[in-house]
Amino acid sequence: MFYWSNRSFAVIIVGIVLALAALLGTPRLLSLNARLGPPELKTSYFAFTTLAAQLAFFVGPVVGLSIYQYQTALLFYVLIGCALLYGLCAIKSQTESTRL
Questions:
Q1: 33, 46 Cβ separation under 8 angstroms
Q2: Can you list the alpha helix ranges (DSSP code H) found in the chain?
Q3: What residues of the chain score a pLDDT lower than 70?
Q4: CB of 67 within 8 A of CB of 78?
Q5: C-beta separation of 67 from 75 below 8 A
Q6: Where in the chain are the domains?
Q7: Which residue in 31, 64, 62, 63 sits closest to 49, CA to CA?
Q8: pTM over 0.85, yes/no
Q9: Side-chain-facing half-sphere of 12: CA atoms under 13 Å
Q10: pLDDT tens for residues 41-61?
Q11: Burial class of residue 73 in the structure, from the number of CB atoms within 10 Å of its CB (0-12 exposed, 13-18 middle, 19+ buried)
């Protein structure tokens, strides 16, 4: 059957956090592309955004699971660092958009 351990629970929690981040971040990124991109380059902007997302979906689990296999704590430090970096970028973009 299914073996449940603390590591299994940790992987599920990380998956939920990443899914929520993608759910909240993707519409904002696409609307930013639509606002900032010149009309003749909007399709290229959307294509590169989609390419980056697909590359992240492919490379992320491979890198994450290899880190998880050898250094479990490092995976959570990297996840927390990415979340903080995203939060700082979101705060910076909010302050810049209110200034305009």
A1: yes
A2: 6-36, 42-70, 72-99
A3: 1-4, 97-100
A4: yes
A5: yes
A6: 6-99
A7: 31
A8: no
A9: 6
A10: 888 888 888 888 888 888 888
A11: exposed
